[in-house]
Amino acid sequence: MTSRAAVLGSPIAHSLSPVLHRAAYAAMGLDGWSYDAFECGEDGLAGFLDGLGPEWAGLSLTMPLKRVALKLADTVTDLAAGVGGANTLVLRDGRRHADNTDVYGIEAALAEAGVAAPASALVLGGGATAASALAALARMGLTGATLAVRSPERTADTAAVGERFGLAVRVETLDRVPELPPSALVVNTLPGAAADAFAEPVAASGAALFDVVYAPWPTPLAEAATAAGATVVGGFAMLLHQAVRQVTLMTGRDDVPVAAMRAAGEAELARRAGG
User: Fold this and answer.
1) pLDDT for 116
2) I want to staple 211 with a disulfide (CB 3.0 to 4.6 A). Which of 16, 132, 188, 274 is the partner?
């Protein structure tokens, strides 16, 4: 039997998903399965989906497709609807089933590092990953979290995600981070070097750090937290575990080889870094 899957988004060239999923297929003996990457913007997703044949098992979706995917699915899980985005489409029996494995990825990455139930949390940034982080924190048992953003007036949708999952969200501006009470966990979802300015206050707080950046790694924020003796979780762990969940959803199998996927992903990151 031949089955196909792929990751879609824009830009897509540097996605690690093909490496992770192909490693899973190889270790699971799924010789007839293939996984590719396709450049696709919001306007192109409907046409891409309409052109798929019965051999397609599923799609991984990255930016900017997570929101529009909800409108093109036949069914949407409560989790994907609550977060406001789907990073996964499972294709079965001619129907499209939208799900979100980013939240699972965050939960699994934190649990793996021993940060399964932080008493309090500060989330830096207000985008889609921050929304998934708030949902994950609520599912991990937190009742409240602080969201630090550049423009609070543009963050209502993200804060609302936390509240839909039962999390009381306090919104602050990023410039107030050094003045905020210490949190047990800091989650950085800011892009690029935007979080570098917070390395000193985060390290001084003693908080565990989950930095969603995975390349280049370590970030200045992660280096500072590590030097201070804090538990640090990188973005690769989230990427790995959300892919593990996708493989289960698309193949219908629970025996997903996490170790093989981790090794393949780490080797690819080392290759890209020149090491």
Assistant:
1) 83
2) 188
Q: Give the burial class of 65: count Cβ atoms within 10 A of its Cβ; 0-12 exposed, 13-18 middle, 19 or more buried.
A: buried
Residue 209 CB contacts under 8 Å (≥ 6 apart), including other chains: 185, 186, 188, 202, 221, 222, 225, 230, 231, 232, 233
Q: Please give the structure tokens belonging to residue 142.
A: 């937190």
For the residues 203-212, what does the mean pLDDT come to?
Answer: 95
Closest of 240, 233, 149, 140 to residue 190, by C-alpha: 149
Q: Is 71 a catalytic residue?
A: no
> Does the pLDDT of residue 1 top 80, yes or no?
no
Q: Is the pLDDT of residue 275 over 70?
A: no
Measure the CA angle with vertex 172, ends 166 and 173; round to 5°: 145
Band (117; pLDDT cuts 50, 70, 90) = confident
Q: State the DSSP string of 111-165.
A: HHTT-SS-S-EEEE--SHHHHHHHHHHHHTT-SEEEEEES-GGG-HHHHHHHHHT
d(Cα 219, Cα 142) in Å, to the nearest integer? 27
What count of Cα atoms within 13 Å lies in the side-chain half-sphere of residue 222?
Answer: 19
Length of the chain: 275
